[in-house]
Amino acid sequence: MELSDRKKKILCMAIEEYIKDCSPITSGGIKDATSLNCSTATLRSELNALEAMGFLRQLHTSGGRIPTAQGYRYYVENLLQSVEATDKELDDVKSIISSRTSSLNDIITGIAKIVSKATNYPTVIMVDGFENLVLSEFKLIPLLEDKIMVLIGTIAGYITQTLDVKATAQDCIDASNYLTNHFKGETIGFMIENIEQFEKGMHGEIKAFQTVVNSLINGLKQLNEQKYLNVRREGSAKLLDNNNNVEEAKKVLNVLEDEKELSSIMEIKGKGDIEVTVADEDSAKCSVVKAPICVNGRQLASIGVFGPQRMDYAGIASALKVVIDNLNNLKGE
Amino acid sequence: MELSDRKKKILCMAIEEYIKDCSPITSGGIKDATSLNCSTATLRSELNALEAMGFLRQLHTSGGRIPTAQGYRYYVENLLQSVEATDKELDDVKSIISSRTSSLNDIITGIAKIVSKATNYPTVIMVDGFENLVLSEFKLIPLLEDKIMVLIGTIAGYITQTLDVKATAQDCIDASNYLTNHFKGETIGFMIENIEQFEKGMHGEIKAFQTVVNSLINGLKQLNEQKYLNVRREGSAKLLDNNNNVEEAKKVLNVLEDEKELSSIMEIKGKGDIEVTVADEDSAKCSVVKAPICVNGRQLASIGVFGPQRMDYAGIASALKVVIDNLNNLKGE
DNA sequence: GCTAGCACTTGAAAAAGAAGAGTGCTAAAA
DNA sequence: TTTTAGCACTCTTCTTTTTCAAGTGCTAGC
């Protein structure tokens, strides 16, 4: 549906004002807020037309209009001026990302925390492209009680894992070297798929540490299969402030506590850029602004900011842009 | 203030009913709920007396009574029948605790998660007795880019730390062995205090890895100074259900987002047992049921469950009892 | 196509009345 | 002295009614 420039301007202004104040859009309000040189009567007929097209709706005859889900969607898709990545509060993201000796988990928690603080909305990160991580080194360390700790260095931080395997210190060193030599620069997915090929090529003496490697691969397979969610709920209190109604806040909190729901919502359908999902009026879902987190050009995770239908889509999109731009610039050494 | 048995019974019943239903306590309601053989008129005069003593208050003349903060406190201190640790949902706690190769962080997150799920209230764990952890082994592992990863085995799980220090593989092995030999069985606090003494006794050739050790100790000192909080907010949506008013929910969520506030609230004043703090009517704080987490007889952390003034103190106290009993049974190997 | 003017609709706020729950008090009973 | 029955009183809640003003839709004229 193509709108005239004026209708676009009116719709955009209307939605932004409504997001800011939560007070219904009236012809008078629009006249005050825009530089349009036309009377309230004209604006009324424009608003009427926008309502007929489904972008706005009236709660009651004399009460001004509010955006519909369709209105928000149009706004998001067409009117959201190309977001710029300019959020100072997000500078920390860079330093977190660049510390490659942090654990992947800490890095993810750190990012979620910062985004949540900056946007004032609950934020979720889901790691679902674990197999895309590029490996840099392996360290196997024998612990007490016949266990082994595995440090897996990746471009996006360290992953640790504990294995219930008995092995000598030499086995661990051999395995570390073997794995690092053969899979450095490759992805975890590649390693899982090809390890058997490589094992066939091993000599007898190297096979000593084979149980260790098998156990390690099993562990990685498990990690790979279970998407893991890191939910940050900073800003939950804000959900209750600021004219947000309690029912909407409850929706958001309920979604955040339902892992299944969450991971289905977090699925990125398109590719490579910010996606906005606007909650329907009647559904139990909430709105999300989400983006893929790519490292080295491959998708590792998704980040999503959750809120009610009436949320600051533009501000959040801009914040997410900072994060994903920074992450996408991270290249393998 | 000593109350007659009947007054105690009435107060107890009144508060428990109110916690359950959130409907004001009336003479008729009490008569129905208890087996007391007296008329509503008698109960009215008892309620009147309890009000005069400050345990109950009337919102308005004909509207029944609700507990005051003082009333809740009396209930908690005197009437909460000695809580029993019988929560099936908390069985998982045991298995989490016994997996000593998990990271301390994972263990704490796991416990907070389980408690939060079981109680349906936000739960916080604050590690403030880091120096009391008993050491079991050290593993220093050289990483890429002149960094070292340190695995510190403790009775309550592994702690990892990354150091920006250049060291040879041999330095790392030497340091690992040295530290493990000298400090196994001692606490982190002991090690921090006495490391200099030990260093004086070193021979020239061992001093090679001294920079590594110094850096490690500095890192531990930092960890020790910064109390760290692990906040779990499962059940936030429940805060909004069930007759909880929004203002109270907001209070709780606000407290949870204020680290300073949180850590001051989490401070355990008494020793060794469950403490309940009941929120005042007018203050911005919320109610907490908290307990110290001890390992090997020394306090490592505190766990606290946060909620509105009207919360299920008895149920939560019982859940916490399960957790701390299990943890206190954990002895060094 | 735009605007001014005006009647109309409708919710929100205020006022008034009715109903009912629960109390406090008093006098009598135990 | 304690307990109980009875009753008047208070205060909220629920309706109903009224008023008010905001904002609209419509129409006629520019």
Description:
2 copies of one chain form a homodimer. Chain A has 333 residues and is of the alpha+beta class. Chain A is built from 13 helices and 10 strands. The first copy, chain A, has helices at residues 5-21, 27-33, 40-52, 69-79, 91-98, 104-119, 169-183, 188-200, 210-225, 236-240, 246-256, 259-266, 313-328; strands spanning 56-58, 65-67, 123-127, 135-142, 148-154, 157-163, 228-232, 275-277, 287-295, 298-307. In chain A, the strands form 3 sheets. In chain A, strands 7-3-10-9-8 form a 5-stranded antiparallel beta sheet, sandwiched between helices. In chain A, strands 4-5-6 form a 3-stranded antiparallel beta sheet. In chain A, α2 (27-33) packs across α3 (40-52) and α6 runs antiparallel to α13. At the A-B interface, β4, β5, β6, α10 and α11 of A face β4, β5, β6, α10 and α11 of B. Chain A binds a DNA duplex (30 and 30 nucleotides) through residues 24, 26-28, 38-42, 44-45, 47-48, 58-64.
